[in-house]
Structure formats: structure tokens, C-alpha cells
Amino acid sequence: MEPFLKWAGGKRWLISNPNNIFPDETKIKQYIEPFLGGAAVFFHIQPSNGHLSDINEDLINAYIIVRDKWEDLIEILRKYEIQHCKEFYYQMRSNNPRSPLQKAARFIYLNRTCWNGLYRVNSKGEFNVPIGTKTKVILDADDFLGLSSLLAGMNIEACDFEKTIDKANDGRGVYSELAIKCW
Asked: Residue 52: which CATH number?
């Protein structure tokens, strides 16, 4: 399963390493990831249950919407792809939608069309990355049904990493660059 977001500091390079350092999913009682980002490790291991978190509320909202309302989401993304141009990008960048579904669609649209998939906000909390060179909003590798199914067994929460790490105990695998509890 491929991550649906590009994320600075992502671990796609790590999972493509021929010396797989991750355990088989069957050996993990519960997977815990406190710095979700693009979730390359999660999508590689494909655990059946666990806790995914990140402090970025927009990111977490996108995962929840992919899990719970992927069909509505993809319908909006298809419309955005038709409308995509420089003017539309900057209009979307300046928008502040209220509904979780619209927020997730905006987030994914900006991630896929901004410069290098970078997520950056200014001191006012406004997304401020310029438009990139990519024009596709719906990607050939997209499998939102599969993503939704995989995310179905996950508790997904926006919170500080320390709160998430505190959930770990014996038999729970925590993946983090800052803290790794033995599988």
C-alpha cells in the first residue's frame, strides 16, 4: 500500500531498504506511531490495529476522512483536478473551509499540487507553500478503498507524541525516530 501523501522527512526510503528492519505484522499486538506524517512505515507493515497520531490536526483530519468518508473525498478531489490551475491553487490555499471533509480535500489537494509536497504554515497558522509543478490531484496509485480498509482498525488522534508513547506497553510496537520501544 502506497502512502497517499508526500511528506517532508517521510520514510519511503527506509521501507524500500532490502534489509527490512520491521517485524512481521503478526508479531505486533498493537502498532503505535506518534509522528504519522506520510505513514510510509504504517502502510508498509499494515497492522490490523493500533494508534496513529501527529500533532498536526489537518493531517490527522485527512486520515480520518480517508478512513470514514473516502468516497465523498475522492468526488471532491476529482472536481479539484478539473479546476486545477495557478489561480485555483492560490484560491484554495487562502480558503479556510469549516467542514472536516472540505478541510481534508483542501489538505490533500494542496499536498499534491504544492511545491515538493511541503507542509509549512506562517506565524498565523496559514499554509504558505507556493504552487509546484505537479498537475494531477488523483494519482494512478490511489486506492482510497484500500486505504480506508487499512485505517479501519486504527485509533487516529491529533495529540503530542508523549501522550501517544505513553500508550505503549509490552507487545505494542512504537515506530518513531525519537523513541522506539522494542517490538
From this structure: 1.10.1020.10
User: Distance between alpha carbon 4 and the CA centroid of its chain, in Å?
Assistant: 7
What would the pLDDT profile of 26-59 be if each residue is shown by its tens digit? 566 678 888 899 998 888 888 888 889 999 999 9
Q: Count of domains in the chain?
A: 1
Per-residue pLDDT tens over the stretch 98-150: 999 999 999 999 999 999 989 999 999 999 999 999 999 999 999 999 999 99
For residue 174, list its beta bridge partners: 32, 181
Measure the CA–CA gap between 142 and 68, rounded to whole angstroms: 16
Q: Can you give the residue range of the structural domain that contains 45?
A: 12-18+29-174
5 found inside a domain: no
